[in-house]
């Protein structure tokens, strides 16, 4: 039997660029049970005509059918009791004939999320996805599953954001057909597709470097998918003849085996107009074989760190007087950005001094997050607040716990904080009061509302539990259960982990509930 992981690893390692993923609807169907396009449209025809009517009128062309449904749905949405709550909240957002349908589709999609209890044995694949550390992801999907898997990746929604931004092609998600977080961005109707197609050349120009310099792994698409055919066709029209071979070699399609098929990895000819591309097709029912190959080929430095460096190098070059923004520091201080726009150097700090005597100014934020979860503390709280916390003020990190150390310093209310030498920390603790992610409200209401903190942790996957706990009323949160959950999953707090932001928010919530005091008075 062919060793898919080994063969694909060899292909990826022979390429100078790290992989990109190009993700389609089959990906969301596999992992969160999302319906196919016709099935999704059918869900919103309950108070309209039979879906078959729209399908037949459009010759089964789904964008045309979606436009017909959107017209009829607009009338129903403004009158039906079924949508009374939506009208009261979103009536000012309905600006076009298709807005109502896009809104309700988006509301439905934001509730779709990975549920470990219904994964059909795919939990190992799900667990491997955040470790892939691919350079970026391109997708035509509208749901929020990719953001859940890669929370630290920067998201560009729609063609407009991509065309008029400065993407770095590192740790980014390009949602080229829109996103449920912005309902009117959805490419849904034939009119939407016409607008999208009119800008295909510009989109191709943005994506061409990715396709030529990186292997691109297509997941959830068939070879004949019209969206993929159009995009590849647009890119081909921009390439010279000597670039076509490399372009074809970079295209890798992942497909499920048909009945009776053995897993395989083969070269295949893909014909786009009058151009033949020699591409790679992987057929397997165990996608973990492909994910392991991608993980095996990853670089040592996390993609999100590289994106930060690349963004800041761009600003550095564009800056007329950059000298004050360049620094040489120890790689361990990569989070201590402060006013530094670009960081160069490895191991140049006084390592021996730190080993022999750890100064408070050299403590890492990781150590503080872990220390907050202990009953006692490794540090002198007053010295920590005096020497270490001022170094955090200009960092981009928004969520930093501080109440524990304020309490240990004898500060137990907002008045004593303002009267102390640590008064500047008030702004930090106000910023650290995290709100739950609004895009998951529907999922929490449907699956976790009314459950205890322990029940949420027991039912939900680890990452999702950290998100769902934030929705509980504060008087319902079991602080000790949260503390034990965070300690059991302390690796998730490390900045290289894609889910670290969720867990750091939860540490701040724990710190406030365990040690905090009211800060609402002015």
Give an overview of the whole structure.
This protein is α/β, with parallel strands linked by helices and 522 residues long. The chain is 46% helix and 9% strand. The protein is built from 27 helices and 10 strands. It has helices at 4-13, 25-32, 37-42, 51-57, 62-77, 84-90, 99-110, 123-128, 145-149, 158-163, 190-198, 200-213, 226-236, 241-249, 288-296, 303-318, 351-356, 365-372, 381-388, 403-408, 414-418, 425-431, 441-447, 453-459, 462-468, 479-488, 500-515, and strands at residues 20-23, 136-139, 154-157, 172-175, 216-219, 251-255, 264-272, 275-283, 326-328, 342-344. The strands form 2 sheets. The protein has an 8-stranded mixed β-sheet with strand order 3-4-2-1-5-6-8-7. Strands 9-10 form a two-stranded parallel sheet. Helix 1 (4-13) packs parallel to helix 15. The longest helix is centred in the first third of the chain and has 16 residues, at 62-77. The N and C termini lie far apart (70 Å). The relative contact order is 0.10.
